[in-house]
Amino acid sequence: DRSLLPLLLVEMRFLVIALVALSSIETALSVKCSIESINYAPGNAEEFCVLKGLKTDGAATGDIQTDPSITRVAIVDSSLKRLTAAFYERFPRLEHLVVRNSGLEQLHITNIVRIIDAPGNQIKSISIQGGGALQELNLHSNSISDITPISGLVGLTKLNLGATSIANDNSFDFTDLGRLTNLTELYIDGLDLYYLENTNKRVLPNLRVLDLSHNPLTPSNFQLDLFRAMPKLEVLLLRNCLLTSLSVYPDELRTDFPSLEKIYLEGNHLKCPRFTQLLDILKANGIDPVEPEQAEECSQGFMSISQMCCQFLMLPPTETTTTSSTTTVHPSSTTQEPKQLSNWQKFKNWFG
């Protein structure tokens, strides 16, 4: 009966979908992984082939099972120390690798993977076989100290080296990343940096986001003309850098930062008059000094301006003359206690 043909076609379509799904599950089981949703970045979750408790990457096994259909793999809660080429042989189409809560010390990168998200492990060294496809590399909070192999990954667009050991005598030289001309985001927060350099004046022509937060930068060595080598920089994060001063010249600001749109300044020790002046200069040049979502809690000697704390300049105490005589003052109903001025009122009175 021809009237039943459309119904049969629909049923066959559902059957094919079910068989494909079953095949994918069986294949995943063949490499001993489970399909789970992994949040690999804030607001980003994908289905991954999750390998838990992995102790070997496959190099020691005689019969390596492979799955050409799996493109996303997550290694979780693993005691694996080394990730070698044998691992990638198991997943010949791997594009996205996540490593979490692992004892991984050596990371191998091949030419097929595009994204590696491996923060908070124990990675000390990196070996590269090709690596031309890699676009994003997150090594935040690892023990790596040598970025020489990374400097050759010319396809990188996002690089996170925050809270690692790459600083050289509390200094970072942007020349070391001079070949990474495709970089759009660079995170080097929490490196205990005092100095920033660019000894060979290498240009990062596409860099748009730079995070320097949580580095105790030395104000006298923090020269803004350094950023001229980043002509497309749009967002600069200087959170909690303990800066006590920041020299900004209005007529050179847009020369130093031709494309800057936002700057994050909370957690520094700038003096309030200078800080107020700095905010005005930034706004006048079309740069948004982004206010934190919640106001900072200011410690003694600091006050809040635009939800951020600045160092409050206190006047020296007034000298008083004491005598040996004692005077007793009896408060009357008409006597009023002196009104306490707020920090902001004092600031306005002292600095206009």
Would you mind describing this structure in some detail?
- With 352 residues, the protein is an alpha/beta fold.
- The protein has one domain (37-311): Leucine-rich repeat, LRR (right-handed beta-alpha superhelix).
- It has helices spanning 5-30, 85-90, 253-256, 272-284, 343-351; strands spanning 34-41, 44-52, 72-78, 96-102, 106-110, 115-117, 125-129, 136-138, 158-160, 171-173, 185-187, 195-197, 209-211, 235-237, 262-264, 288-289, 302-305, 308-311.
- It comes from Anopheles triannulatus.
- It holds the Pfam family LRR_1.
- InterPro entries: Leu-rich_rpt (IPR001611), LRR_dom_sf (IPR032675), SDS22/Internalin_LRR (IPR050836).
CATH fold title: Leucine-rich repeat, LRR (right-handed beta-alpha superhelix)
Give me the count of strands.
18
Q: Helix content range of the residues, please?
A: 10-25%
Just give the CATH class. Answer: Alpha Beta
The structure class reads: alpha/beta
Mean pLDDT: 84
- Can you tell me the residue ranges where pLDDT is under 50 for at least 5 consecutive residues? 16-30, 59-63, 320-352
